[in-house]
Amino acid sequence: MSRLLINERPVMIIPSLAEKIGLNEAVVLQQIHYWLGISKHKIEGRTWVYNTYEEWQKQLPFWSVSTIKRTIRSLEMIGLLLSENWNQMKMDKTKWYSIDYEKLLEFDDSLPESQAAPIVERAPEEASEKMQDSAVHSSSVKKVIPYAEIIGYLNEKTGKNFKLSSIKTRELIHARYGEGFTLEDFTRVIDLKSADWQPDPVWNKFLRPETLFGTKFESYLNQQEGKKRQTEEDFNLDE
After folding, report:
1. pLDDT tens, 168-209?
2. CA nearest 146: which of 220, 84, 67, 89?
3. How far apart, in whole angstroms, are the C-alpha atoms of residue 194 and residue 226?
C-alpha cells in the first residue's frame, strides 16, 4: 500500500467551510481550532496558541511560508482569526492566535452532520504547541473558490470593508470563476482599477464588487497598466 494514503495524522477539514471561506483558510482555521482545544494558555478570558510563520509551515509543509502568511492574513481580515502579542518580551514577535467563534456563526447555516468531515482523535501525549507534520485529507472537497482571499485583498487595497457574507458579492465572484477566471485575474483587476480610481474621490466609489467583478471584468483585466479609461462605458452602472 502506498505510504501517501493516510499513514500520517491527517489535517481534517469540513468541505462546506472550505466553500465558504476558502480551502487554505479552512485548513488553517481547523488546525488552530484543534490546538485551541488542548491549549493551556488562557489570557483575558480567551484561549490562545502561538507559533511563528516558519513553525506553521513545518506543520503544513505542502505550503510555502508566503502562502501561510497570506492565509493567516486573510483570516484576520475577515475577522475569524484574532492575533495578539502576549510574549513577555515585546521584542519577540511570535504571534498568538485565537478564533472568534461568534463571528464564525455568521457562516454557519446549520449544516447537516453528513456534510462534516470526521474529527481526528489524537492521544493527549501527542499534543504540543509545535504541531507535527500533517497531510491534507481533502478528497471530498470540490473546486473551491477563494472568496475570502479575493474580498480580503479588495479590502486591503481599497481600505474598505466589504463583507464576505454578502450573497451578491459571492455570486459575482462565482460567475467570473465559472467563466474560467482565476485568483490572479481578480488580484490584477483590483490592482489596476485601484491605481486608476483610488486617488479620485469621485471614481473611488466605484471600487466595489458590483463594478469590478461584473460583466466588464475581462475588459478591466486586459487594460494596459498605467492607462486610465474614465468613461461611463468603464462601469457596470446597471448592476
Report:
1. 898 899 899 889 999 999 999 999 999 999 999 899 999 999
2. 67
3. 11
1 pLDDT above the threshold of 80: no
- What angle is formed at CA 198 by the lines to CA 194 and CA 202, rounded to 5 degrees? 130
Cα–Cα distance for residue pair 139/141, rounded to 1 Å: 6
Please give the single-letter amino acid code of residue 227: K
- The CB-side HSE value for 234 (13 A sphere, CA atoms) comes to 17
One domain, residues 72 and 181: no
State the cell numbers at 73.
Answer: 492574513
Cα–Cα distance, 95 to 85 (Å, whole number): 5
**Does residue 96 share a domain with residue 186?**
no
Is there a contact between 149 and 20 (Cβ–Cβ < 8 Å)?
no
Q: What's the predicted TM-score (pTM) here?
A: 0.52
Dihedral, CA of residue 238, residue 185, residue 135 and residue 170, to nearest 10: 0
Instruction: Give the span between the Cα atoms of 165 and 156, in whole angstroms.
Output: 17
Domain that holds residue 121: 10-136
pLDDT tens-digit map of 87-144 = 888 777 788 999 998 888 877 643 444 444 443 434 333 434 443 333 334 333 345 7
Do 111 and 169 share a domain, yes or no?
A: no
Query: In angstroms, rounded to a whole number, what is the distance separating the alpha carbons of residues 11 and 33?
Result: 12
Categorise residue 238: left if φ over 0, alpha if ψ from -120 to 50, beta otherwise: alpha
